Amino acid sequence: MLCCPAPPVAGVEIIFILLLALIIDVLFGELPSFLHPVVGMGKFISLLLRFAPQRGHLIQLVYGAGLVVATTALFCAASYFLLSYLKEINLIAYIVVAAIVLKSTFSVKKLHQVAMRIEELLLQDNVPRAQVETSSLVSRDTSKLDKSLLVAATVESVAENTCDSFIAPLFYFLFFGVPGAMAYRVANTLDAMIGYHYLPYEYLGKCAARWDDVLNFIPARLGASIMLISAYLSGKSTKGAWRIGWRDHNKTESPNAGWLMSTAAGALRVQLEKVGCYKLGDATWSLSPMTIRSGVKIMRMSALLWMVICIVVEVVRFVC
Predict the structure, then answer these.
(1) Where exactly are the structural domains of the chain?
(2) pLDDT of residue 211
(3) Biggest CA-to-CA distance, the chain
(4) Rounded CA separation 17/6 (Å)
(5) Torsion sign across C-alpha atoms 301, 280, 185, 292
(6) Cα–Cα distance between 251 and 221 in angstroms, integer?
(7) CA distances from 141 to 146, 153, 274 (A)
(8) What's the rounded Cα separation, in Å, for the pair 244 and 263?
(9) Which of 23, 90, 170, 259 lies 20 to 30 Å from 226, alpha-carbon distance?
(10) What DSSP letter does each residue of 126-156 carry, written as one string?
(11) What is the pTM of this model?
């Protein structure tokens, strides 16, 4: 679906949309649930899952592929035609609505708030509540995680979402406009909902998981590179980020998340562990609640750098 052209916009308009979307995120955070496209995606996917076949690997695989195509087509087409219509009647309305829709595909403030809330709870030794909060960031069972594993899970999620929640949506926005960012968010939402190796999603969610892997291939590696620069600007270990990122990126099941998580582990000089699955980095320093703050600092610096890069790219396009 990404091959569909976005409504033609001049470079200046794209810059305004980018900046306004970032301002909306900084000032207001997430959109209300009844207006949030991702909430709509979740409801639409849940509706289609009611009719999903319960048996037959091939039919589940085909249905899962159809689920990806149908959801992507619906939300890309909706954003495309809405913005095309607005652009014809009022340029300001077009920019404002485009910024709002683009904002719905990424989130920095919300991720920052949740991570810092977990840090606060851990500093208060409120582990049970921190376990509940952490469960909103990761898919693993957090009910038995101790403080250090909760810190690890939070830092991992912040690192991975540097790509998923910011770099990747804007990457596809640069090439395919708002519909491109929306297509990425659909893929990421589908992967979060059904991209698992257990019943009933083993085959039903396989296409969604593989499609998400494909879309994240370049953004994840780009994000790890940006994170290297952010580590330097944040006073963290650039050498460690490079060494551990290169050494440990393939230890995770995901072909993409390992790049960001291992780079973050190296930058912070800590070991991030998912029990029974992987250990990333060397335990030069022990994990503490304050490690979360350092991870968030790198994430925010990476988001700022990527926004600057996006704007520079659009300025060059406009001038050339």
Answers:
(1) 11-319
(2) 97
(3) 59
(4) 14
(5) negative
(6) 15
(7) 12, 11, 11
(8) 6
(9) 23
(10) -HHHHHHHHTTT-SS--TT--HHHHHHHHHH
(11) 0.93
